[in-house]
Design goal:
Layout lengths: L3 E2 L4 E5 L14 E3 L27 E11 L7 E6 L6 E5 L2 E6 L6 E4 L8 E11 L15 E6 L2 E15 L3 E12 L5 E10 L5 E11 L4 E11 L12 E9 L5 E9 L4 E4 L3 E4 L2 E2 L2 E6 L12 H13 L4 E4 L6 H10 L2 E5 L14 H19 L5 E8 L7 H17 L4 E6 L10 H7 L4 H8 L2 H6 L2 H12 L4 E4 L5 H7 L5 E6 L4 H10 L3 E6 L15 E2 L32 H9 L7 E5 L8 E2 L8 E2 L11 E7 L4 E6 L2 E7 L7 E7 L4 E8 L2 E9 L6 E6 L3 E2 L7 E8 L12 E7 L2 E7 L13 E3 L4 E8 L3 E9 L2 E10 L1
Parallel strand pairs: 21-22, 21-28, 22-23, 23-24, 24-25, 25-26, 26-27, 27-28, 40-47
Antiparallel strand pairs: 1-10, 2-3, 2-4, 4-9, 5-8, 5-10, 6-7, 6-9, 11-12, 12-15, 13-14, 13-16, 16-17, 18-19, 19-20, 29-31, 30-32, 30-33, 33-36, 34-35, 34-37, 37-38, 39-41, 41-45, 42-44, 42-46, 43-45, 46-47
Helix pairs in contact: 1-2, 3-4, 4-8
């Protein structure tokens, strides 16, 4: 089927019941989809959604659109497809109930034919609900794209073409294509279907066709088996993509009935405990990042350019794999992973039949899980980046006999729909045995499982390696191709002995442990990778990775829950604006991808203050040597390096030499004093220099600087311009602690779609035109509304305005 964007002309407002609406005077607001209805709601400390949602409140929202339905559609099949509506979507067409989709992450289609009034304007409305149903910020509303489909009665089914590559040799690959054709008409349909395979260079490499007859009200699967010579194999290092073009024509000379194009990769997956994961015969270790689905300043809105940017920046930071935590990944992000060669573990859900929050999807899981699995597979099946389906995350009932039955049931349902990929599950032995650990929880006085795990420290590893966990999770683990372990690296060596045929992935691990985690991955061939929590910071689970200074008046420990106004988790290698935090460079060195050292300076204004952290925290450090403290103020400088030792210099004068690893793996620490100038770190192994890096103090007046990754974008609401704002000197050195409010204005065919910083604790909204810079930076996101020149202007007190032009066309 041919999908047409159906994203403009919508309005949104709070949904009121028929009686509630009497006398109400609430004006719906115009929006362009995708849209997050929760992002701009007021936040407050007494929000009943609490820290999980970043202190946002929930609600019920109604989206409305009117559209013309011509008489010519009487003989057509008309569908509307939603890629995701959060949550419990109810669709009405001309006031009549048309569909209900409880899952907030599953794509679904609604057949409009029975409800349309032809030759007139029609109305579609979509209700969405979000309230105490997620452990993280979910967003709300029609947050993923929507498509209108108008097709002939005989047409290619939505997601109706599946491409597999079961037979690959050096000189050729066999591509099998199966296309489902539907006949919604009253007469037998006789058509001809044609397939064409186009290579990465745009040239056709194979083609064939066949007749297909479909009886009224039935479907038929048409298949082709094509040989592609000298195939270019898809691999993370060389992600070449092919396209399968499918056309359906009437055999009586009628116009083409339908067409679609599916992009795919030709690649071979292998898995065993001796050589781990192999792609096209080459072992690949997964340098993985867990990612939530929100896009920072955009909220949960899934706009294609934002998804692509996240994938691109995560790969540039050293990751080659993403785990979609804890829900299915968007189509746009999967497409970006295909293009950039990033492997995907796509996850079905966070809960099965036992709830983690008051109104989560456990309420309907037993009735909807098969549909949810089908939607996941239908979305993923042609994407070469997807190598594993995860059937859950830290499932509460997993260690019970009934939970094991659910494990088997779900895993087999996935395999029945797609047996070309591996099945995994994010198992947390402690969470799965919470009932048996009630006494331990009481001793730790934990308010929630995250806090309990944080308080357990090294005890958690011992408990995860216990016989109780081994025995209680054995059946659920045995149904998997790859056993995912959350925070259970203590099982890696143990399971090689207990379960010698078991293949493991670290499906979720603490960020500060990456040096140890990666060593274990490299040492154990049956451990295929590590997925850190997290690769990109996110909204909700507010403050889980924060650093608290405990000497402030009235400080009270709050476990992993950050008090209001914390908004962000503050746990990510990359902050929500796309800026790499210092931990990202540490990880890059741990992965063996960076030889130059990296300078991370602890904020001198906080020198000597006591801190409290969580296992998801990193140091409160910044790569800067521009500070508003007096020269001579004490400061701690960390240098990340895999060398033997590091020498530190200021303006060419030696500060000292430190051995790497004395205070922590891959870190050389210096206690010195702040002095403006040039700070240089030189790494050496066996006396020979292996790399150097430097930071320079800003030496001229601060000014506003604007930069954009692209100054020319498409005149399409699915594209975006990301304008990075910095307070810097003439040579680009940022004034790290000279923050001030900055105001953005946009003129021309564009709007300010989001404006924010990486500051985790803030009351500034993303929909405003003013934010306070954080470490001298902010990000403005501009969405085009048409073609032409878009001017972005930024002002801030005491600084000259700065402008730049983005061309949409």
């Amino acid at each position: 089927m041919i999908r047409h964007p159906f994203t403009d002309g919508w309005t949104v407002g709070p949904k009121l019941g028929a009686f509630e609406a009497m006398g109400a005077n609430i004006e719906p607001q115009p929006v362009t989809l995708p849209h997050d209805a929760m992002r701009d709601l007021p936040r407050s400390a007494d929000s009943d959604q609490g820290v999980g949602a970043g202190y946002h409140r929930g609600g019920v929202f109604e989206y409305v659109k009117t559209f013309d339905v011509p008489d010519a559609w009487r003989e057509k099949t008309v569908l509307i497809e939603f890629e995701g509506v959060y949550r419990d979507a109810v669709v009405y067409v001309n006031g009549e109930f048309a569909a209900h989709q409880p899952n907030g992450y599953a794509a679904f289609a609604v057949t409009l034919d029975p409800f349309l009034v032809f030759g007139r304007t029609n109305r579609i409305s979509v209700e969405a609900r979000a309230h105490k149903d997620s452990r993280w910020y979910s967003g709300a509303g029609i947050y993923r794209p929507v498509h209108l489909v108008v097709a002939e009665p005989t047409h290619i089914a939505l997601d109706g073409t599946r491409v597999t590559t079961p037979d690959i040799d050096e000189d050729r690959a066999i591509v099998e294509i199966a296309t489902t054709v539907q006949n919604a008409g009253r007469h037998t349909s006789m058509s001809r279907i044609a397939w064409s395979i186009v290579g990465p260079d745009g040239a056709e490499v194979a083609a064939t066709s066949a007749p297909v007859t479909v009886l009224p009200g039935e479907t038929a699967i048409a298949r082709a088996r094509l040989s592609v010579p000298d195939a270019s194999l898809w691999h993370p290092d060389s992600p070449g993509l092919y396209s399968a073009r499918v056309t359906l024509d009437g055999t009586d000379g009628a116009a083409a009935g339908d067409e679609e194009t599916v992009r795919f990769g030709i690649r071979r997956l292998q898995l065993d405990p001796q050589r781990g994961l192999r792609i096209n015969g080459r072992t690949v270790k997964l340098r993985g990042a867990c990612v939530h689905h929100d896009n920072g300043p955009l909220g949960a809105a899934t706009i294609g350019a934002a998804e692509e940017r996240r994938v691109r920046l995560l790969k540039a930071a050293g990751f080659n794999a993403l785990r979609s935590a804890h829900n299915p990944m968007s189509r746009a992000m999967l497409e970006a992973c295909d293009r950039h060669g990033v492997l995907v573990m796509d996850e079905l859900t966070d809960v099965w039949t036992r709830s983690k929050t008051a109104f989560d999807s456990s309420v309907s899981f037993a009735e909807t899980w098969r549909d949810d699995v089908a939607a996941l597979v239908a979305k993923d099946v042609n994407h070469p980046s997807v190598i594993m389906y995860s059937i859950g995350n830290e499932i509460l009932e997993l260690a019970t006999p009934i939970g094991s039955s659910w494990s088997r049931r779900i895993a087999e349902a996935v395999r029945a729909l797609d047996d070309t990929r591996f099945v995994t599950n994010g198992i947390n032995g402690i969470i799965a045995n919470l009932d048996k650990m009630a006494e331990a929880r009481a001793e730790l006085e934990a308010a929630d499982p995250n806090t309990m795990m944080a308080d357990m420290g090294e005890q958690m590893g011992l408990m995860n390696a216990s016989a109780m966990v081994s025995e209680s999770t054995e059946e659920s683990a045995a149904v998997l191709d790859v056993v995912g372990f959350n925070y259970a690296e203590s099982r890696y060596a143990l399971d090689a002995e207990l379960f010698p045929h078991r293949v493991i992935v670290g499906s979720e691990t603490f960020p500060a442990k990456i040096e140890r985690m990666w060593r274990l991955v490299l040492e154990h061939p049956h451990v295929i990778g590590d997925f850190t929590w997290t690769g990109w910071d996110y909204l909700g689970e507010a403050g889980i990775g924060r650093v608290d200074y405990t000497d402030v008046e009235g400080y009270q420990p709050t476990g992993t829950a950050g008090p209001y106004p914390y908004l962000l988790a503050e746990s990510g290698d990359i902050d929500i604006t796309g800026h790499r935090r210092t931990v990202s460079y540490y990880r890059e060195i741990a992965f063996g991808l960076r030889t130059d050292p990296y300078l991370a300076v602890h904020r001198p204004q906080h020198h000597g203050r006591p801190t409290a952290t969580t296992p998801w925290s990193w140091d409160d450090s910044v790569a800067s040597w521009t500070w508003g403290v007096e020269p001579g103020a004490p400061v701690v400088v960390d240098v990340y390096s895999d060398a033997d030792e590091v020498e530190l210099l200021i303006d060419g004068e030696p500060v000292g030499t430190a051995t790497v690893g004395e205070i922590a793996p891959l870190i050389a620490r210096f206690k010195t004093v702040y002095r403006p100038g040039e700070l240089v770190a030189i790494a050496r192994s066996a006396g020979a220099e292996t790399g150097r890096t430097r930071l320079r103090t800003a030496d001229s007046a601060p000014r506003l600087t604007l930069s954009a990754e692209r100054t020319a974008i498409a005149a399409d609401p699915d594209d975006l311009a990301f304008v990075e704002i910095a307070i810097a000197d003439a040579s680009g050195s940022t004034f790290t602690d000279a923050d001030r409010p900055a105001t953005v204005s946009v003129t021309g065919p564009g709007v300010l779609a989001g404006f924010g910083t990486g500051r985790a604790r803030t009351e500034e909204p993303f929909d405003g035109d003013t934010v306070t810079t954080y470490d001298g930076r902010a990000l403005a996101i501009v969405r085009p509304t048409g073609a032409g020149a878009i001017t972005v202007t930024v002002t801030a007190d005491g600084l000259a305005p700065a402008s730049m032009t983005i061309t949409a066309g």
